[in-house]
Amino acid sequence: MYHYDQYDQTVVDERVAQFRDQTRRFLTGELSEDQYRPLRLMNGLYIQRHAPMLRVAIPYGLLSTRQLRMLAHIARRYDKGYGHFTTRQNIQFNWPRLEEVPDILADLATVQMHAIQTSGNCIRNVTSDHLAGVTADELEDPRIYCEIIRQWSTFHPEFSFLPRKFKIAVNGAAKDRAATQVHDIGLQLVKNASGETGFEVLVGGGLGRTPVIGVVIRPFLAKSDLLSYLEAILRVYNRFGRRDNKYKARIKILVKELGTAEFTRLVEAEWALVRTQLILDDSEIERVTRAFTTATYESLPATCSTLDAALAEQPGLRHWWSHNTAPHKIPGYRVVFVSLKLPGQAPGDMTDSQMDALAELTDRYSQGELRVTHTQNLVLADVKLTDLQALWQQLSGLGLATANIGTAADIICCPGLDFCSLANATSIPIANGIQQLFEDTDYLYDLGDIRINISGCMNGCGHHTVGHIGILGVDKKGEEWYQITLGGSSATEAALGERLGPAVSRDQVVSVIDSIFTVYRNIRTDEEPFLATVQRVGLTPFQERVYGTH
Amino acid sequence: MALIKDGQPGPNDWQHLDDSETLPALGPVTVSLKRWQSQRDGLNRDGQPLGIRLEASDSPEALGDMPQEIPLIVLDMQAFTDGRSFSQAQWIRERLGYAGELRVRGDFLLDQVFYLARVGVNAFEFSDASQAQQALPRLHEFSVRYQAANDVKQPLYRYRNTAPIA
Ligand code: SF4
Asked: Can you name the CATH fold of A135-290?
């Protein structure tokens, strides 16, 4: 965790006071609905289908057990006993009462949490790799820079009323787990020819209505120039981004309309003017680094014979090990994924008692810290091999050890029509319907890694365009239909899915997905993952099966 | 109409002229940037004060290099959501080094006063005195400022732990 000092704490405390006043003014009629809207949005508060929805930031996905216990408390005290983890390392509460939101924010502030800029046309929660700090292929821990950017962007005096929302992701590993290519700004830590570490800067990626893969506008940016370069990009966007049409207001449209070369020229010209005025000092990078807790590791053997024996004997443990754990850079440790994809439950949802119990386990087995993934699961990053079996048993008892991470049952899913007032169609029941295909887990494991992403409308909160299989809810004369895409990916070789064909009706969608699996199983070569098969054969075999040959 | 200038309630002597209104012989007036560009010398009234109003869509580049002789620049906000005015202020203060009065009027919220003050706006025009009263404490709504801006010349990390929270 990054530990707040008195300055950081003062910011969140004063924010609570400000929002309390804004809400009071709204409730007494001093602020109109139109005036209150952007203010509440900048505090993550939406007015939804049934009730307000509050989105709380989990900066770069890092969460302490103290914070998780507070989230449990909020779910219990102010909501209906659960929270929903999103694809952008936030948690949403679906049932708070408007009058109580200032109290929720006050409670959050006591554990160094907030909802600042989790919505609205401003710089949003900065996201990162859920394996940061524990993965062997990492140049540097990206979360240090996320925190520096968080502070720089918090109440930025010039960039808080942008044409549209603005999302930044930072990745430090060779493998892109932060989806940097589909963010307004993606920062990838790289080394230049002289061995210095800095950032490759991508701009203009994004999902939603017009999905676009970002373009590199600077192959190498020194760390000391990070903030001045961000300032230059944001200023160009704030001045020239379109404000006449909200669907054309994201920076990706500006980059497209100007062309990458012209956009880059404007940014570089602006940067030349501000570069020397905003140097990110090494001493600040060091201060922020020191303000993070560091995990302490024992020197342990790289294997554990008791675990190996248990793995040989217990298929349940073995499946969990192979799907829900990942290598750790330190010998004797393992990364554990906590699955929030129990079939039949809303993907990403967690109850207050699960949160409390998981906080307990995290204190016992993983040094008191967790991470939130983009796929709506959680991670305990520092588990000893010797503790794995015990942890597995206890997670199983909580319904948090479904061995399905990375499989077709590990579905990313937005709240959809059940909660969201913008939705065209339901998404959670579709996810649950697909999960029901896998009562036989052998079938699930045989399918291998398949990313299925579901969004209830074009806004794409469920990242459908970068799903290997994307499912998008569309409205057809008041009925729920689904547009299916294949071949998307948000990994290092990011790609946008291609439309399979006409939308299918709600009662067909699950069987269509099943047909897609069947085609894959029939035509794959040995060990060929789903995405590779789609890339090799294209859409035709799938289309023939789903829509017939004529 | 009520004015706050340099953190104090104050009188407003300025009259904001529409493009169709004729200039009075005497007294401080502001005109739109468009009018200023097209009529320049015609606006000269023997040294009577003349200010310029910028809408969010106007290019601050049009002010030229040195608007120092201009006694008042007004950011005329048509919609409080249009953040271009904030970048105009940044341009006027930082790029042009303008030291005169930079005022905001029109559609802006009390909750934006803090941000506007930070980018260099030093005068706020409100429709009524109670709004102006409420705005005063909001000039300092947050006592911690992470970024360097017109009000604080260094980012917080340059003086962290050496300065009290103020
Ligand atoms: S994708 Fe659409 S339906 Fe789903 S949460 Fe986002 S806005 Fe709502």
From this structure: Sulfite Reductase Hemoprotein; domain 1 (3.30.413)
Each domain of chain A, given as residue ranges in start order, spans: 6-109, 135-290, 305-397, 412-547
End-to-end CA distance of chain B: 31
**Residue A485 CB contacts under 8 Å (≥ 6 apart), including other chains:** A464, A465, A467, A469, A470, A472, A496, A497, A498, A499, A500
Q: Could you tell me the fold of the domain covering A305-397?
A: Sulfite Reductase Hemoprotein; domain 2 (3.90.480)
Given a contact cutoff of 8 angstroms between Cβ atoms, the answer to whether A232 and A211 are in contact is: no
Q: Helix/strand/coil (H, E, C) string of B110-152?
A: HHHHHHHHHCCCCEEEECCHHHHHHHHHHCCCCCCCCCCCCCC
Report the CATH number of the A412-547 domain: 3.30.413.10
Of A155, A162, A284, Cβ closest to residue B157: A284
Q: What is the tens place of the pLDDT at every residue in A334-357? A: 999 999 999 999 999 999 999 999
Helix axes A428-435 and A506-523, enclosed angle (nearest 10): 40
Tokens 């709506």 -> residue: A376
- For residue B31, what is the enclosing H or E element? strand B29-32
Taking the mean position of all CA atoms in its chain, how far away is CA B37? 19
Rounded to 5 degrees, φ, ψ at A516 are: -60, -40
CA nearest neighbour of A462 among A435, A506, A499, A424:
A424
* Element housing A475 (H / E): strand A469-476
Cβ–Cβ below 8 Å for A18 and B111: yes
**Residue type at A409?**
A
pLDDT at B163: 67
For the segment A464-498, what is each residue's pLDDT rounded down to a tens digit?
A: 999 999 999 999 999 999 999 999 999 888 899 99
The pTM for the full model equals 0.95
> Would the CB atoms of A239 and B87 count as touching at under 8 Å?
yes
Q: How far is the CA of A134 from the CAs of A60, A172, A390, in angstroms? A: 15, 11, 21
Give, in order, the Cα–Cα distances in Å from A287 to each of A153, A284, A299: 18, 5, 28
Mutation to probe ligand 1, out of A459, A464, A482 (largest number of atoms < 8 A from CB) = A459
Helices (H), chain B: 33-39, 84-90, 113-118, 129-138
Given CA atoms B27, B28, B32, B36 in this order, what sign does their dihedral have? positive
Whether A323 contacts A406, CB under 8 Å: yes
Residue A348 beta carbon below 6 angstroms from any ligand 1 atom = no
ipTM exceeding cut-off 0.90 for this assembly: yes
Q: Can you state the angle between helices A352-365 and A65-78, rounded to 10 degrees? A: 170
Contact between A463 and A469 under an 8 Å Cβ cutoff? The reply is no
Q: A6-109: which CATH number, 2.40.50.140, 3.90.480.20, 3.20.20.140, 3.50.50.60?
A: 3.90.480.20
Q: Which domains does chain B have, with CATH numbers?
A: 2-159 (3.40.50)
